[in-house]
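Example S7 (structure tokens).
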């Protein structure tokens, strides 16, 4: 890769779609995902909406922004109100044949990206009165984070699992999962802002608790049946794998990785459940009489995290058949 170039799924799709649309400027192609994932995080349930802006729209946004109907408040670009919206958007390529479009994208893709389904954006009739948007229209998302324990790391899982040591106090971790479940202000479980826009948003969020309040419907530790016993027969303690499953209505920046890191810290004795409860209730890691700074524990690295599922409630997708 060229120096300073960051490879992303969004970038891969945008560049390939720009070619399919007729070698247009990739800046005109918009790829909106249902979740903003850190570098190194995986997804098998990612939903993305794609469209191509007409040639003059980018110039209009620079010169006559007030005259552009953005359709979703707070967004920087216009967003299609329905699948056939031609106000600011080019028609779909390949005469709108979605099966052919998915086939072309999969022929052009790198080995670590795969289009597994394709459909027109569904029509929306909800009380929010905005068109379908992959993030704003979702009801909840489910993440899975894989951790492993044992005498050493199973090398076949090194790229998809976080090795956390010989063992965890499973009872303590499960109690920690109960503490983290519910509707709470999770400001203590978000990552530091990474740029000027994020820093400004972070400062604003601290002043408005509603922006950092999330509902976690389900937080659980589940053991994964491990085949490793067959090829590490005499290793003690045995190599085991677990999934931390987190299902919620929304998530803050790096929130799942902070949640998992804190649960592992509870399982290894670096934190206790009182620390978690205090962080949830107070919005920080303060100990009475001490400076309110985060207790030292490792934030879970990105490679063990998978966006597993995104649920849209009663929204109906008309999935088209795929060609391989």
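Recovered sequence:
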């Amino acid at each position: 890769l060229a120096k300073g170039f960051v490879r992303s799924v969004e970038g891969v799709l945008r560049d390939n779609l720009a070619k399919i649309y007729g070698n247009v400027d990739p800046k005109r192609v918009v790829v909106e995902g249902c979740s903003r994932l850190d570098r190194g995080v995986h997804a098998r349930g990612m939903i993305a909406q794609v469209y191509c802006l007409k040639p003059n729209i980018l110039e209009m946004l620079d010169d006559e922004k007030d005259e552009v109907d953005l359709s979703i408040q707070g967004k920087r670009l216009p967003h299609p109100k329905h699948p056939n919206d031609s106000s600011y958007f080019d028609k779909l390529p390949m005469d709108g044949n979605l099966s052919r479009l998915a086939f072309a994208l999969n022929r052009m893709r790198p080995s670590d990206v795969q289009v597994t389904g394709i459909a027109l954006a569904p029509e929306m009739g909800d009380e929010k009165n905005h068109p379908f948007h992959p993030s704003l229209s979702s009801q909840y998302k489910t993440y899975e984070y894989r951790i492993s324990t044992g005498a050493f790391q199973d090398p076949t899982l090194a790229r998809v699992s976080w090795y956390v040591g010989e063992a965890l106090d499973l009872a303590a971790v499960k109690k920690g999962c109960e503490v983290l479940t519910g509707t709470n202000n999770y400001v203590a479980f978000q990552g530091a802002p990474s740029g000027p826009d994020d820093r400004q948003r972070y400062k604003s969020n601290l002043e408005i608790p509603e922006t950092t309040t999330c509902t976690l419907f389900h937080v659980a530790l589940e053991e994964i049946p491990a085949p490793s016993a067959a090829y590490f027969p005499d290793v003690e303690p045995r190599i085991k794998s677990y999934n931390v499953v987190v299902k919620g209505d929304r998530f803050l920046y790096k929130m799942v990785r902070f949640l998992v890191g804190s649960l592992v810290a509870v399982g290894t004795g670096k934190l206790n459940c009182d620390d978690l409860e205090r962080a949830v209730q107070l919005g920080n890691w303060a100990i009475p009489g001490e400076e309110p700074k985060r207790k030292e524990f490792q934030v879970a690295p990105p490679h063990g995290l998978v966006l597993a599922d995104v649920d849209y409630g009663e929204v109906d997708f008309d999935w088209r058949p795929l060609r391989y």
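Notes on this example. The CA atoms of residues 119 and 319 lie 5 Å apart.
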